[in-house]
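Collaboration report, partner site 2.

Our partner group contributed sequences for two proteins of shared interest, and the home lab folded both. The records are reproduced in the order in which they were received, starting with the first partner submission.
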Amino acid sequence: MSSDTVALSICAHPDDTELLCAGTLALLYKKGWEIHSATMTAGDMGSAEHTQEEISSIRPVEAARSAAVLNGKYHCLHCLDIFLSYDRPTLTKTVELLRKVRPRVVFAPSPQDYMIDHETASRVVQMAAFAAGIPLLETPGYSPINYVPHVYYSDSIDGRDIFGDSIEPRILVDISDVIGIKEQMLCCHETQRDWLLKHHGIDEYVMTMKKMSAERGGRIGRPFAEGFRQHLGHPYPQNNILKTVLGDLVYERK
């Protein structure tokens, strides 16, 4: 598979990809792209009933099952949940992943979000996309890439920053035809879904995802959409490759 048709989502925790950009990954998959998803942690703090060791072995399996819906591959960098840091080991692991997968498109968490793990992951991915081409940053077994990938930031979890102000996406992708696939992928994360079912008595996990997707879809007159902002700083690509590949499913807001 050429790197020109490889997409990689890198998030902080298992289920972040499914909540934020799985619909767009599904659309790319339908166009023949190879799909990878990665998390910096195993979500090892994400349980009220399992031990940290137990949940850190369960959640990556759920994430791999989700990626398999798109015949994709899942990668875990095994950093610590809640303690995710912008440091040399984390950045080096992320650069190594980029050199291994060699994606043309990378999806990252929003730079502004309710949780610092998400914001830290966003910064690490931004830098790793740049640093993956630097020869003096060594990752034995994986050679530098010779391009800077397209980097897209997903929405924050509720579309707002920590002050409650709206974060407006500049790119909206119509995922109406693949919302069922997005839901299927999200429901692979049974430990998180069951936790909410037990505590709230309703399937809030899926409802929250659909509510947010519907809000974004309403902005373009479609049932469901996902929102993104593209990193356009020097020397990142300036063209919107999602628009090139997905055509009329992509709406650009100035």
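Second partner submission, folded after the first:
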Amino acid sequence: MRRSGRAARLTIYLGESHQWHHRPVYMEVVHRALAAELAGAAVFRGVEGFGQSLHIHTSRLLSLSEDLPVAVVIIDEEERLRRFLDQVDEVIGQGLAVLDEVEVMQWVREPASREHG
């Protein structure tokens, strides 16, 4: 069965090497999202990109980078995501976040019907 509805998507763009207390920032953000009981989060690693530094970070063999771009994507209600941003301000330090409205489609299994007879 497919359900759909309105939600919000928070995408936080970071560098893979960004750290918070000797731990990758993206990992800290995901763990805090779980603790905040948000609907879901995932981290995506980029193969090439640039940010404020205007320096290209790439995974190409001849110029291996230790600071590839990563995107942390979190889905939930907009207000919950705005409150969550307040909780991770200190962790992010340097990065960019985008908050946009999305339509969510979720496929769920219906419970098997139980026939008594």
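Feedback sent to the partner group on the second submission included the following. Helices lie at 25-35, 78-92. The beta strands are 2-15, 19-20, 23-24, 40-45, 48-49, 57-58, 69-76, 96-107.
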